[in-house]
Design a protein that fits this description.
The chain is of the alpha/beta class. It contains eleven helices and twelve strands. The protein has helices at about 10-15, 55-65, 95-110, 140-155, 170-180, 200-205, 225-240, 255-260, 275-285, 290-305, 315-320; strands spanning about 30-35, 40-45, 50-55, 70-80, 115, 130-135, 135-140, 160, 185-195, 245, 265-270, 310. The strands form two sheets. Strands 1, 2, 3, 4, 5, 8, 9, 10, 11 and 12 form a ten-stranded mixed β-sheet that branches. Strands 6-7 form a two-stranded antiparallel sheet. The structure holds ligand PBG.
């Protein structure tokens, strides 16, 4: 035998030399659910190990993450039902605790990179990402609302805005609105190929943000489509996006690979709540080993072509690799 691939696997030093992909904490973004109030740390039942944090409890949590080398966070607000309305007005209100908290975090920990969520659903009495009239999600009436939300987040000090709404034309609309208000340095991480997926369940539990009527299929993508993701990617790129995102990640590794092969922009992949919950459940049952299966899962997303991974396992991964 002339060729024996096993020779390159014979020791950890050799395996390490020929390793093609790796994940480190600097490539991860940790999602945090935020709620107004004091001394709150309430676990999301369908996503064990993840909590809704009030402003006073989230600060020490962020400090602990920084000590582990985890600097990137995507922040989602859980809004009191009483503050929700058809136009998501609280999303850009001066009284919005989420906006105030962004400023506090940036002041306390300027080394963090904070990513927002731009979509109406946590603030909307309809529970949809866009403005609803007679049961329809109206694209062009949603754009100005998203722009107000994004500018308010930029005013508060956000580093990256993350439009997750899937309205047409929103990246250009947000770019123009941000630039007009002097926020040309704020980046846009666009949820480019966001699918109408069944794997967002625990997230909607965490924020109590499920649609009151209907589903999201008229704006989020059909899980059967891949070529269409290229169309969305072309648009987002031409409209000025700084990152293209694929969401979910694990069940869409082929889409990650296709986008990575067709753009020079960095690709982000959202390892969503339902995908994380599946692994957590199997590990809690003793069916899989968390410390082995979790890093392998993140590696698979990296190998598919993701530069950045949004994952609820970010803190555990950072802790594990620090050991
Ligand atoms: C809101 C939004 C959702 C997620 C991120 N931003 C839910 C949805 O579109 O219904 C899901 C993230 C996850 O499941 O972890 N537009």
């Amino acid at each position: 035998m002339l060729t024996r691939p096993r020779r390159n696997r014979k020791s950890e030093s050799i395996r390490s030399m020929v390793r093609e992909n790796s994940v480190h904490a600097g490539q991860l973004i940790y999602p945090l659910f935020l709620v107004d109030g004091k001394k709150i740390k309430s676990e999301v039942k369908s996503l064990p190990g993840n909590f809704r944090w009030s402003p006073d409890t989230v600060l020490p949590e962020i400090e602990a993450c920084l000590k582990l080398g985890l600097t990137n966070f995507v922040l989602f607000p859980a809004i009191d039902e009483k503050l929700k309305d058809k136009k998501a007005a609280y999303s850009y209100s001066k009284h919005n605790f989420y906006l105030k908290l962004i400023s506090t975090i940036k002041k306390e920990f300027p080394e963090t990179c904070l990513v927002s969520d731009v979509a109406m659903d946590p603030y909307s009495s309809d529970g949809h990402d866009g403005y609803v009239e007679k049961g329809k999600i109206l694209n062009d009436k949603t754009l100005p609302i998203l722009a107000k939300m994004a500018v308010a987040q930029a005013d508060a000090g956000i580093d990256i805005v993350g439009p997750s709404d899937m309205m047409d034309g929103r990246v250009a609309y947000l770019r123009n609105a941000l630039d007009e208000k002097g926020h040309s340095e704020v980046s846009i991480m666009s949820y480019t190929a966001k699918y109408a997926s069944a794997f967002y369940g625990p997230f909607r539990d965490a924020l109590d943000s499920a649609p009151k009527k209907g589903d999201k299929k008229t704006y989020q993508m059909d899980p059967a489509n891949k070529i269409e993701a290229l169309r969305e990617a072309g648009l987002d790129e031409s409209e000025g996006a700084d990152f293209l995102m694929v969401k979910p990640a694990l069940h869409y590794l082929d889409v990650i690979h296709t986008l990575k092969s067709n753009t020079a922009l960095p690709i982000a992949a959202y390892h969503v709540s339902g995908e994380c919950a599946m692994l957590t459940a199997a590990c809690k049952n003793g069916w899989l080993n968390y410390e082995k299966a979790m890093p392998e899962t993140l590696l698979s997303i990296k190998r598919a072509g993701a530069d950045v991974i949004l994952t609820y396992f970010a803190k555990d991964f950072a802790r594990l690799t620090k050991k």
